[in-house]
Every structure is written in structure tokens, then in C-alpha cells.
């Protein structure tokens, strides 16, 4: 009839406690109802009021009480208990939700793992052990179920880390009218028989070696690229800004013998050139060169540095060489002369 047509949720927690819940706002229009129960049979039923209500926005939505026997009768009434709104009698042991498995162990043998747990004290034949696992590359859990209390699965990759979780299921319809399972046991992480803290940091020796080799090759490649770029940069720099020759080496005697004194060096060079001409020219040419030298003193060509030093003799040194295609040595250089050329220092 109408009194037992509404939906309620009944859970027997491993034959220890009972929990009855209902949807208050949908069923009783936010009316604050009361709950009574009894495990008695026949005419000697003793109804007990609920002492531990479950609340939904301050309205009674369930009751938690101790299991006292296999047969249970429940009654939901109005707030003062004078009118019965719902009644149901049932076998409490058909609504059992088992406890999570205890002392779970993992045994690895190559690519096969066997998971076991302790047997419950009663009704072992009504339970099945479920194993779920996945690697960090899997999106969905893989499942394997076997009778309590051992399950075996194979095909695990020893290079991968796997997450495992187990629970106990109540057999339906042999033992339960509702498909209840225990809560999941704490999740564990394994790789090739080794228990890990998590699968976030699983690095196999092979992968570590690969990482080291990859990093080493990358560093060597970067060094090679930098070396090539450095060589090319030196070429570009040399072409854009060529090296300026140091005058210290072509004019070594100017800096070594005369400490950079240009006037003194010019006087010595003048004397050396004159000595060279005396050695290689005939007396007639020497006389003519000296005559032309005297004439050169009155010429308009002057040495700029000589004006500042008031030394007209050094500033107006000029030689007119008449020998056709003659070569005159000067400061380590050979100068090709002709009839129409003269050198001014």
C-alpha cells in the first residue's frame, strides 16, 4: 500500500549497525518526522525511538542504531508519533555492506601479481575480492574480481608504476538484495615488486641513463654551435674592423734607439742615406748631389715639425736623385726613384 511505497535506503554495516535514510523534502514536504524500530517478532514487539538522527537542513532524514537481530521492522511517523506515515519489515542481513579488506598483501612474480587479504570472521562465501589497477598512462581503472580472499592478475610491465586498490563485494542475489561493496582500501603504488610513495616520480634506471645521455649530447651540441659562431664572429670582426699595424716594428730603431724622438731619428736617417749614396755613386754625382742639396735649402718645401722646433736644417732635407730608375734605401724600405722625383723628410 501507500505506507511502504516510498523509497528508503537501508544499510547494515557488517552486522554491527543499521542506517536508514529517506528524502525528507521530497517525501514529507519538509515535515519533521519521527522514526521507530524494533527487532522483535510476533506480538511482543517493543518499538524504540531513534536516538541518533541524521539531519538534512535541520530536518530528520535518517537514523543510525545498533543491529540487534536478523528481522527488522521500521516505522516513520509524524513529529509527535501519533500518525504512521511509513512501515516496512525486512531481513537486515540482506542489506549488509562489508568492511574494507584487512592486511592486504601483494606478491609479485615477474609480470604477475597476487593480492590477498585476511578472511572475515563470518559469511566468507558471500564475499568477493575486487582488485583495480591502472598505470600513470591509463585513464580508466582495470578490474579483476575473484572469490574471497585472493585475486591474481598478470601482464604488468616491470618498467611502469601501477596504482592498486582493493575492496570486498557482497554477492547478489545469493546473499544481498542490494549490490553493496566495502569502501576501498588505501591506494598503493607498485613498480616491479617495489612499493613506492607515488607514481609521480617513477624513474627507471634506463630512463635516468637516457636523460643523462640526452643532456650530455645537448651540451656538446651547444658547445659546438658556440664554437662555430665564435669563429664566424672573429671573421666578421676582422673584415669590419681590420687590425691596425703597429708602427713599432717597421720603425723599430725610432723607438728602440731614439725613444720616439722623430727629429733625432730623421737626422740619423739623413746621414745613413748620404753614406749610402757615397758608397754607390761616383764622385761627380756626389758633387752634383751636394750642389743640389745647397739649392734645396732655398726651396719652398718645409717639414711641418721642423717649424715648431725652429730647426730649419732638419726640416728642409731634400735629395734630388738624378740616377735614372735608381733605388734608395730608407728606414728599411727600398724606394724606386727616377729623374723627376725627390724625397722630402
From TrEMBL:
Region of interest (Disordered), ranges: 283-304
Entry membrane topology: Single-pass type I membrane protein
Keywords on record: Disulfide bond, Glycoprotein, Membrane, Receptor, Signal, Transmembrane, Transmembrane helix
One GO cellular component, as annotated: membrane
Gene3D superfamilies: Immunoglobulins
Superkingdom of source: Eukaryota
Domain Cytokine receptor-like factor 2-like D1: 12-65
Any single Pfam family the record assigns to this protein: CRLF2_D1
Keyword Nucleus carried by entry: no
Ranges where the Cytokine receptor-like factor 2-like D2 domain occurs: 98-193
Function: Receptor for thymic stromal lymphopoietin (TSLP). Forms a functional complex with TSLP and IL7R which is capable of stimulating cell proliferation through activation of STAT3 and STAT5. Also activates JAK2. Implicated in the development of the hematopoietic system.
Family: Belongs to the type I cytokine receptor family. Type 5 subfamily.
Protein name stated in the entry: Cytokine receptor-like factor 2
Classification lineage: Eukaryota, Metazoa, Chordata, Craniata, Vertebrata
Name of the coding gene: Crlf2
Amino acid at each position: 500500500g501507500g505506507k511502504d511505497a516510498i523509497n528508503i535506503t537501508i544499510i547494515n554495516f557488517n552486522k554491527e549497525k543499521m542506517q536508514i535514510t529517506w528524502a525528507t523534502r521530497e517525501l514529507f514536504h519538509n515535515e519533521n518526522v519521527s522514526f521507530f524500530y524494533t527487532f522483535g517478532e510476533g506480538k511482543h514487539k517493543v518499538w524504540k525511538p531513534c536516538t541518533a538522527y541524521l539531519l538534512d537542513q535541520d530536518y530528520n532524514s535518517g537514523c543510525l542504531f545498533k543491529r540487534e537481530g536478523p528481522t527488522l521492522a521500521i516505522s516513520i511517523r509524524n513529529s509527535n508519533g501519533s500518525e504512521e506515515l511509513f512501515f516496512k519489515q525486512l531481513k537486515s542481513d540482506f542489506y549488509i555492506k562489508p568492511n574494507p579488506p584487512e592486511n592486504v598483501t601483494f606478491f609479485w612474480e615477474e609480470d604477475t601479481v597476487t593480492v590477498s587479504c585476511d578472511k572475515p570472521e563470518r559469511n566468507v562465501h558471500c564475499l568477493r575480492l575486487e582488485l583495480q589497477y591502472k598505470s600513470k598512462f591509463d585513464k580508466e581503472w582495470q578490474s579483476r574480481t575473484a572469490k574471497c580472499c585472493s585475486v591474481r592478475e598478470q601482464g604488468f610491465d616491470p618498467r611502469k608504476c601501477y596504482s592498486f586498490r582493493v575492496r570486498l563485494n557482497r554477492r547478489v542475489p545469493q546473499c544481498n538484495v542490494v549490490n553493496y561493496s566495502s569502501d576501498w582500501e588505501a591506494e598503493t603504488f607498485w613498480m616491479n615488486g617495489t612499493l613506492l610513495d607515488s607514481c609521480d616520480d617513477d624513474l627507471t634506471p634506463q630512463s635516468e641513463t637516457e636523460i643523462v645521455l640526452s643532456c650530455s649530447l645537448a651540451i656538446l651540441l651547444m658547445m659546438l654551435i658556440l664554437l662555430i659562431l665564435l669563429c664566424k664572429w672573429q671573421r666578421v670582426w676582422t673584415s669590419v674592423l681590420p687590425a691596425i699595424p703597429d708602427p713599432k716594428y717597421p720603425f723599430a730603431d725610432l723607438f728602440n734607439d731614439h725613444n720616439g724622438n722623430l727629429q733625432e731619428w730623421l737626422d740619423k736617417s739623413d746621414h745613413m742615406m748620404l753614406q749610402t749614396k757615397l758608397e754607390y755613386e761616383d764622385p761627380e754625382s756626389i758633387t752634383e748631389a751636394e750642389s743640389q742639396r745647397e739649392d734645396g735649402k732655398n726651396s719652398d718645401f718645409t717639414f711641418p715639425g721642423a717649424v715648431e722646433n725652429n730647426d730649419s736644417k732638419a726640416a728642409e732635407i731634400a735629395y734630388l736623385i738624378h740616377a735614372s730608375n735608381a733605388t734608395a734605401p730608407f728606414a728599411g724600405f727600398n724606394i724606386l726613384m727616377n729623374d723627376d722625383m725627390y724625397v722630402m723628410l
